[in-house]
UniProtKB/TrEMBL annotation:
Subcellular location: Membrane
Family that this chain belongs to: Belongs to the glycosyltransferase GT106 family.
Keyword Transmembrane helix: yes
GO cellular component, one term: cytoplasm
UniProt name for this protein: O-fucosyltransferase family protein
Swiss-Prot/TrEMBL keywords: Carbohydrate metabolism, Fucose metabolism, Glycoprotein, Glycosyltransferase, Membrane, Signal-anchor, Transferase, Transmembrane, Transmembrane helix
Membrane topology according to the record: Single-pass type II membrane protein
Residue intervals passing through the bilayer: 21-41
Annotated metabolic or biological route of this protein: Glycan metabolism
Annotated GO MF terms: glycosyltransferase activity
Keyword rRNA-binding in record: no
Top-level division of the source organism's lineage: Eukaryota
A biological process term (GO) from this entry: fucose metabolic process
Taxonomic source organism: Oryza glaberrima
């Protein structure tokens, strides 16, 4: 009996020890997980014991492991904002990548202001490029939703009941362009409450550039610069492009906007043959939604409304002082006229590259026939370049300009096309020497290098004033700080 009692006591003590060990393990696991979420946990790396510089080596290794851990660990979720939704907002973005990007930023801001639930945007598939890419083919959907959860609810699709209802009847409208927050509060909110689901069938330029509350302007920036992250596949290939270029030293990105659709719809045919001019005109007439048919190319050119030709941009780069060994990355679609139109630029700058030259066909294959995904790669390289030069102030040029301002006023040369057309014609006509031409080009652009500047406001003429996404000054510091910089 004594022996049996002894065995029983040992079993009870062993059981109690096992339970305490298990409880300790659970508590310790919870503490570690909580600490890792709050940023208190840091992996420790022993200093190198092999000689001099051990402490520095240990710190470097620690910093390196922290950076790796930060990339691999899922970010802590921001607290969810709880609010009563006034309805759902469906949006169909129109245009190319950067036109849609800016539109998405506006739609998030409008949904937040009106306390609506935003459905992940639908992208344009009916444009000239007929790109079938979905939002999730370009942007990281989970990051988009989670990074903004403290501002608004974003869902991947409508609840089934509303989905069935909208199949029968959907209230769809294009909001008035360049509207301020009052328009959405007084006109759109009432419609959203009435119909439960409202659809915006156009998203470009639906918010004013100026006059909005600062908190709304800063939300536009937060969406643009933080929430709209490209997919891991695009990010990885974009980083590879950037790394390859940076290994060769400094590099310039030239956004050469000289594609067929650009020339056709703008009517800009300077430097084209008669056959090319006819081809571009036929294309313009083939698209009924493009209202402007009869266009005087030379008049538009003198107004600065045409992109510079590859031959013209060659002269401008040389006049600005870019040497022959400058590494230039061409960010664009297919150049109209192909290699023939790039001949002068290649002769002047032999280190001319494109993504198709730096990446293998196998690496680019998943992105082929998806112009928006290819443009995303160019966008990443444009942001990272030492100098960015757009030949035209389209959507990509303006959005990249604003992003480069946001990342520290990186050098962006904004070409004054009105002045350049005058100078180019004078030089090519023999009225100016090369030295005079070069000096005049440099003088015209000494204050057009992406320096801090106040956004131009033209009341009643929003199309002519500075675009918010090209210079989001409300997100770049206080007005007093901006004035100090200026």
């Amino acid at each position: 009996m004594v022996v049996a009692a002894g065995h029983g006591g040992r079993r009870r003590r062993a059981w109690r020890w096992a339970m305490r060990a298990a409880a300790s393990a659970v508590v310790w696991t919870a503490v570690v997980q909580l600490a890792s979420i709050t940023g208190l946990w840091r992996p420790r790396v022993l200093a190198d014991c092999g000689g001099g510089g051990g402490a520095a080596t240990g710190l470097a290794a620690l910093a390196g492991e922290d950076r790796v851990a930060a990339r691999l660990s899922p970010p802590a979720l921001v607290p969810r904002r709880i609010y009563k939704s006034n309805g759902y907002l469906l949006v169909t973005c129109n245009g190319g990548l950067n036109q849609m990007r800016a539109g998405i930023c506006d739609m998030v801001t409008i949904a937040r202001y009106l306390n609506l639930t935003l459905v992940v945007p639908e992208l344009d598939k009916r444009s000239f490029w007929a790109d079938s890419s979905e939002f999730g083919d370009i942007f990281d959907v989970s990051h988009f939703i989670n990074s903004l959860r403290d501002e608004l609810m974003i869902v991947k699709e409508l609840p089934m009941k509303l989905k069935l209802k909208t199949k029968r009847r959907l209230y769809s409208m294009p909001p008035v362009s360049w509207s301020n927050e009052t328009y959405y509060l007084k006109r759109v909110l009432r419609l959203a409450r009435k119909h439960k689901v409202i659809h915006f069938n156009k998203t470009d330029a639906r918010l004013a550039n100026n006059g909005l509350p600062v908190k709304l302007q800063r939300l536009r920036c937060r969406v643009n610069f933080e929430a709209l992250r490209f997919t891991p596949q695009i990010e990885a290939l974009g980083r590879k492009l950037i790394s390859t270029l940076q290994k060769s030293g400094q590099f310039v990105v030239l956004h050469l906007r000289y594609e067929m659709d650009m020339l056709s719809f703008s009517g800009c045919t300077h430097g084209c043959s008669d056959e090319e001019t006819e081809e571009l005109t036929r294309m313009r007439y083939a698209y009924p939604w493009w209202k402007e048919k009869e266009i005087d190319s030379e008049v538009k050119r003198f107004q600065g409304l045409c992109p510079l030709t590859p031959e013209e941009i060659t002269l401008v780069l040389k006049a600005l002082g870019f040497k022959k060994d400058t590494l230039i990355y061409i960010a664009s679609g297919e150049i109209y006229g192909g290699e023939r139109r790039l001949a002068a630029l290649k002769a002047a700058y032999p280190r001319l590259v494109r993504k198709e030259k730096l990446l293998s066909p196998e690496e680019l294959q998943p992105f082929q026939n998806h112009s928006t995904q290819m443009a995303a790669l160019d966008y990443m390289v444009s942001i990272a370049s030492d100098v960015f030069i757009p030949s035209y102030d389209g959507n990509m040029a303006r959005v990249v300009e604003g992003h480069r301002r946001y990342t520290g006023y990186r050098k962006t040369i904004l070409l004054d096309r009105v002045k350049l057309v005058e100078l180019l014609d004078s030089f090519q006509g023999g009225a100016m020497s090369w030295n005079e031409f070069s000096a005049a080009v440099k003088k015209a652009h000494q204050h057009r290098m992406g320096q801090p500047t106040e956004r131009k406001v033209i009341p009643g003429r929003p199309k002519e004033e500075d675009y918010f996404y090209a210079n989001p000054q409300e997100c770049l510091g206080s007005r007093e700080g901006l004035r100090d910089i200026l």
